[in-house]
Amino acid sequence: MAAAFSCPVFFPSTFSYNGNRYHGRIKIKINATSSTKVKTLNEIAGAGKGSSSLATSTEFGHLSQEQIRQRIPTKKQLVDPYRQGLIIERGVGYRQTVVVRSYEVGPYKTATLESLLNLFQETALNHVWMSGLLSNGFGATHGMVRNNLIWVVSRMQVQVDHYPIWGEVLEIDTWVGASGKNGMRRDWLIRSQATGITYARATSTWVMMNEKTRRLSKMPEEVRDEISPWFIDKRAINEDVPEKIIKLDNNARYVNSDLKPKRSDLDMNHHVNNVKYVRWMLETIPDKFLESHQLSGIVLEYRRECGSSDRVQSLCQPDEDETLTNGVEQSLLKNMVLTPGIMEGNGYLGPLDVKSYGYTHLLQIKGDSKNEEIVRGRTRWRKKLSTLPYSS
């Protein structure tokens, strides 16, 4: 005889009412017997719709073992309970809720720039995942795979007002738009779920490269037809005239010539991941400066790939005439900028006299007769004030 039982199940929930946002849990009581088949969370939440289950895959025998394990959706999903993601912006944007992990923070318990860049990359991939367009490539659509194409980032800009702290719950929004005839723009916003304050915003430009020839490619019409319905005319950062980054030479003040990619630096496209470049750049800046300053913005212009066999040289030049004496920084007034009195949408008064300091960066192939560039960069810095924008 089957035994009867009941079991409450809780699901996290976010909803809006009269313009206010609320967070809570939805309680569902399941009544069943010992003979009842218990469904997975994927089946309960409905996220399995459009994805290939193990039974379906083995029944038709047309999916690889890798695809069976990944369960990549073949149709658009609105909710992903595993990644805490959902489709927004009238069905084309993406929002993911994440918690700042212990391994994503530095010595001051704040998330590092590398962690933010990794979150940007992860949410971008999850966005494509939920769209139903993802093939077996690194964010590549089905049409891209048929044409041996992969995505490569050509430019990225990040602005950071405040860094999230360890254990904080964040909401990350991302969406895509057109960039010329053959490119795509992707933007992000990071905000605190507890306060609604926007912490960081970013924009990037992506182009397509032939995976075999490693040359840039035009966007095929079938790929354009796939991704253009997802385009949004909206920008996280308004940049009328892109900042021009000068090329440094070997006379740069700080030089690190002992850089070599590790196998762990390579991504699924078999080249050094762009996040690793930022680490090489920042490590070239003097420690004294890094101890007392916080990065507030970065612009990156990518020139070429970096492989596992390349030797890399990092060049770094501070804005003139900045000097460091016993850890005390002095700068000309031309390097001073005023932050807005009221941070947009944050609802608090920002500092009115915060100096901003800049560095120009270059990563290039060491030993190459042409000194072939990998990436140019510009970083902006300000004095460390507080890890909490709402602290007294």
Describe, in plain words, how this protein is organized in 3D.
17% of the residues lie in helices and 35% in strands. By secondary structure, the protein is of the alpha+beta class. It folds into 3 domains: 1-71, no CATH class; 75-237, Hotdog Thioesterase (Thiol Ester Dehydrase, Chain A, Roll); 243-392, Thiol Ester Dehydrase, Chain A (Roll). Strands 3, 4, 5, 6, 7, 8, 9, 10, 11, 12, 13, 16 and 17 form a 13-stranded antiparallel beta sheet that branches. A two-stranded antiparallel sheet has the order 1-2. The chain has a two-stranded antiparallel ribbon with strand order 14-15. A hairpin with a 2-residue loop joins strand 14 and strand 15 (328-330). The radius of gyration is 24 Å and the shape is globular.
List the defining traits of the structure above.
chloroplast; two-stranded antiparallel sheet; Thiol Ester Dehydrase, Chain A; 3 domains; alpha+beta; Acyl-ACP_TE_C; 392 residues; HotDog_dom_sf
Enumerate how many helices there are, as a single number.
8
Low-confidence segments, given as residue ranges, are: 36-60, 321-353
Q: Describe the biggest sheet?
A: 13 strands, antiparallel
Q: Would you identify the CATH architecture of the largest domain? A: Roll
Q: Give the total of domains.
A: 3
Task: Please provide the ordered H/E string of secondary-structure elements.
Answer: EEHHHEEEHHEEEEEHEHHEEEEEE
Give Rg in angstroms: 24 Å
Quick one: overall form? globular
**Which range does the strand content fall in?**
35-45%
Instruction: Give the rounded overall mean pLDDT.
Output: 80
- According to CATH, the homologous superfamily of the largest domain is Hotdog Thioesterase
Structural class: alpha+beta
Subcellular location: Plastid, Chloroplast
EC number: 3.1.2.-
Family: Belongs to the acyl-ACP thioesterase family.
Protein name: Acyl-[acyl-carrier-protein] hydrolase
